[in-house]
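2024-03-11 09:14:02 INFO worker-7 job=invfold-0412 stage=load source=structure_tokens
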């Protein structure tokens, strides 16, 4: 491809519905076959993306196959995809190391001694809310908290989908509300509103979702009685739990997610050597195996990036933007259209920040036309994107969580089952739509 072509791949084609066909192919192949046989373990998501990617290559006969492959490769190598993959690798290394040095068993012992049985789900949901609000990233929160949550699933007989869903749901709370979150920054800047104003407008929307989620976890939070006497907590347990504590503290302090995972791994490595849990060579082996255990997650993320790059190049995103923009005819319709716009774009980009950046300028034009409240528009952009991001199977949040769960040896949970238990992301979507329908509107 020429330099000019490379610089304009995102805008090479006009709006086109046919550009969305690869996504429909993915849905039919992955969800369709899984539903047909009633088994979501039979269809590998990697193969579903390979099929959908092949379909994307068959579109747009005017572009040479070699050029389409380059566009696909550029999507695979998108900076956001690569950063996500690096997080996957570091999360795998951290999880493998702490598991090998006995931190999981120690945290289980501590939790079983101090947290009431019926509050485990609520506790992990609120912990994830707090950490994500402090550090402004859902991926970092999931990488920090999921290993601890996964370790408690088997001994306490907690539904895996409920427990991991609570962690992801809590992480989306902070992703949506934190003043240092990328989504908050994108939403406020595109609508030219203050973060403080957006926060208070946004909190009114999500409070009902938080309450409903807590009620569900309170009702569903019962776990089986301990089958044996709980072992008392020892000094070694507290020492082994330090890597988790360090990661959580660093997360709250706002340390970069990659830096905190690397630091946590080093600390686990040192403690493991000191306590005799492993030697130098065994520790290296654990790190390597932990990284390799994330291989499927990495492949899915890269293939999704390539396919979405082709969809964007062929005019799929432009088509969505054009069609939704036509149907806003009132302030209420404008808000609903913006909700739908950012949701669909998020569905095809698998990145809530990117979705807001794309939809934001259009949302601002529409909101000015119908004199909508800019603070509400910023909130709707953020909540809609976090709703979709929290439930798509190829989003970073679910991919990271499922990768860590597999490393922990939990096989009785499928991606679809996890999505069906993602209560908080679903509730913030419902709460946002209810707000659109019921709120009296004032100009910004």
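2024-03-11 09:14:09 INFO worker-7 stage=emit residues=444
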């Amino acid at each position: 491809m020429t330099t000019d072509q490379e610089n304009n791949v995102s805008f090479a084609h006009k709006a086109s519905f046919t550009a969305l066909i690869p996504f429909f192919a993915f849905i039919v192949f992955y969800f369709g076959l899984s539903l047909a046989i009633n088994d979501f373990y039979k269809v590998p998501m990697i193969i579903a993306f390979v099929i959908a990617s092949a379909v994307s290559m068959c579109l747009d006969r005017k572009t040479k196959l070699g050029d389409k492959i380059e566009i696909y490769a550029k999507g695979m190598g998108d900076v956001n995809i690569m950063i996500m993959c690096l997080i996957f690798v570091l999360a795998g290394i951290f999880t493998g190391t702490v598991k090998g040095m006995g931190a999981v068993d120690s945290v289980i012992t501590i939790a079983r001694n101090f947290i009431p049985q019926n509050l485990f789900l609520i506790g992990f949901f609120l912990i994830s809310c707090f950490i994500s609000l402090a550090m402004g990233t859902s991926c970092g929160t999931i990488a920090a908290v999921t290993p601890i949550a996964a370790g408690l699933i088997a001994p306490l007989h907690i539904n895996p989908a409920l427990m991991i869903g609570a962690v992801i749901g809590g992480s989306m709370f902070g992703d949506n509300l934190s003043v240092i979150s990328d989504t908050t920054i994108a939403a406020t800047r595109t609508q030219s509103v203050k973060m403080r104003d957006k926060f208070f407008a946004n909190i009114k929307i999500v409070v009902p979702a938080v309450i409903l989620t807590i009620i569900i976890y309170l009702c569903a939070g019962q776990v089986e009685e301990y089958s044996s006497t709980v072992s008392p907590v020892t000094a070694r347990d507290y020492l082994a739990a330090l890597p988790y504590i360090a990661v959580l503290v660093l997360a709250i302090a706002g340390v970069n997610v990659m830096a905190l995972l690397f630091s946590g791994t080093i600390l686990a490595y040192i403690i493991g050597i000191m306590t005799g849990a492993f030697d130098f060579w065994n520790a290296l082996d654990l790190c390597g195996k932990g990284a390799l255990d994330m291989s499927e997650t990495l492949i899915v993320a890269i293939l999704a990036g390539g396919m979405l790059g082709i969809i964007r190049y062929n005019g799929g995103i432009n088509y969505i933007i054009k069609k939704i923009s036509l149907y806003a005819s009132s302030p209420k319709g404008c808000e609903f259209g913006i909700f739908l716009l950012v949701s669909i774009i998020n569905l095809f980009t698998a990145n809530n920040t990117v979705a807001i950046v794309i939809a934001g300028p259009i949302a601002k034009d529409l909101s000015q036309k119908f004199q909508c409240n800019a603070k509400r528009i910023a909130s709707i952009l953020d909540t809609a994107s976090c709703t979709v991001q929290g439930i798509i199977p190829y989003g970073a949040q679910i991919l990271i969580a499922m990768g860590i769960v597999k490393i922990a040896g939990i096989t009785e949970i499928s991606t679809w089952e996890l999505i069906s238990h993602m209560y908080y992301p679903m509730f913030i979507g419902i709460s946002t739509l209810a707000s659109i329908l019921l709120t009296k509107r004032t100009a910004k």
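2024-03-11 09:14:09 INFO worker-7 stage=report msg="The radius of gyration is 22 Å."
2024-03-11 09:14:10 INFO worker-7 job finished
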